[in-house]
């Protein structure tokens, strides 16, 4: 809408919506249905597509509600247990529980991020914009180009000013690890298709996001509270090459700084990858959804042996053809035998045409029938 306002020389998006009060309305989070219908009438985009451009279009997959008062932290985050047992460090989890009405899963303060490769591939500056999914702390990389999402200031339809260079010059993309790239591709797939394919089975998007949020909370557990699972957490953080952010043990993930959230997501990606490859044990009740399918060898069975009853050398049908040839030979010289053979074979003829064909066969074989 800001891009449209700039194109038509309007001062603010409200000028595009006469009769609607959008002051104080976060249109990225929720858009009233009458306003969606008005936007659909003014454009070629249908209402379902417009709704999917807001967080309300991802209910109940990504979040339970756009109203923080209706989102329960414990239900969403601890509905599943993956990395750590559900009853481990319960009191420690209370330290990361936000106050009621202040938390939405995966939603943090708005900071614009974009993929530098996606921006470079745009055909013209009029197409410059940002996607809502890139603004979620759920993703740290572009699922298409496998590079880090960069903070920027977007002038819709004009330019992108990158924070890292403080200009609109071309930005060199920073690649991410394979574990992070795979995790982000799965999350993006869940948002667009509604399901994620795991090694064992396909799971619903809502299950995937809650499983992942449980892993994110688990990797934030202090080692002193993890008991014997502290070695597992240490191995996960060592694999990322970064220490665990000190604030992560007492501040909810969505309220951490962006750099700290990126480290936590990298640790969660490493944990998911290790569980799937069987490199690390997992104590959660739902870890089997990520665990590899066990290799169960199939019994090759018993080799076949020779029967103790040898097969007969001759079959009962071996002499049938010889008997037929002998009967035909006798019928050629004995008219009584010919009549007897014809009467026997005629029992299989049920129509006059069949009898006529049998007579022709006898004639072809040189067998003379009695008049």
From TrEMBL:
This is TniQ protein. It comes from the Bacteria. Residues 33-149 form the TniQ domain. InterPro entries: TniQ (IPR009492).
